[in-house]
Specification:
The protein is of the alpha+beta class. It contains three helices and five strands. This protein is one of the two subunits of integration host factor, a specific DNA-binding protein that functions in genetic recombination as well as in transcriptional and translational control.
């Protein structure tokens, strides 16, 4: 699914929202996730997964054409770890409703 397909699906599922509003919502969510990762923060979406930035140390690589050693600087790369519910749904497991906590009863 592409970003435009996601926007179209959300707009169809929410007819009370205009398409430009849905585009703004999707763009804002992606921008906030990107900004948080750039700051080094972790973004967790319960039931879906967690985005984080992993650090890769500097290393010596090789030029594949010449075999010459090349210095590769350290960097941060985005990483996604799927949540349990997402893994189960993708692997064809049972589709369960999200868990809800039991209602809190007042003590007598």
């Amino acid at each position: 699914m592409t970003k435009s397909e996601l926007i179209a699906a959300l707009a169809a599922a929410n007819p009370h929202l205009r398409q430009p509003d849905v585009e703004l919502i999707v763009a804002t969510i992606f921008e906030e996730i990107t900004t948080a990762l750039a700051r080094g923060d972790r973004v967790e979406l319960r039931g879906f997964g967690a985005f984080s930035a992993k650090k890769r140390d500097a290393r010596t690589g090789r030029n594949p054409r010449t075999g010459e050693a090349v210095a590769v600087s350290g960097k941060a790369v985005p990483y996604f770890k799927p949540g349990k519910e997402l893994r189960e749904r993708v692997n064809g497991g049972p589709l369960q409703q999200p868990r809800r906590s039991a209602p809190v009863r007042a003590a007598d």
